Amino acid sequence: YAASAMATWVTDIQREYESYDPSEYELKLGKKCIYKWPSDLARTSSMSMHRTPHMASLGPYHHGEEHLQPMEHHKKRALYRILKRRRVPLTRFADSLEGIEQELRD
C-alpha cells in the first residue's frame, strides 16, 4: 500500500471498529474451533504448491475475488476482537504491517 492508501484503510477500519457491537455475534458464537489440514495432506509435497482459497483469503493474492467476499466481515470481526482483547490501537497493527509489507508480499 502507498502511505495514503494505508491511512485511508486505517481510518475506514477504525470507524467500523468504533461502531462494532459484538453482542449479537457472541450470542451465536457457540463452540470455537480451528480446522487443521489432515495429516496425510500436510505431509505431501503438494502442500507447498499454490492453492486457490475457497472461502477466505489472507493476503493480497486473491483479495477482492467475488467468491471470497462473504468472509470479509468475519475477518474484520476477528480483527475487532483482537483489538478489543489486546487493547491496542489499530494504528499500531498497521504500522507493524507496513514495516514487513514487502516481506509478506514476497
UniProtKB/TrEMBL annotation:
InterPro entries per UniProt: DUF247_pln
Lineage: Eukaryota, Viridiplantae, Streptophyta, Embryophyta, Tracheophyta
Pfam families in the cross-refs: DUF247
Name of this chain's protein: Uncharacterized protein
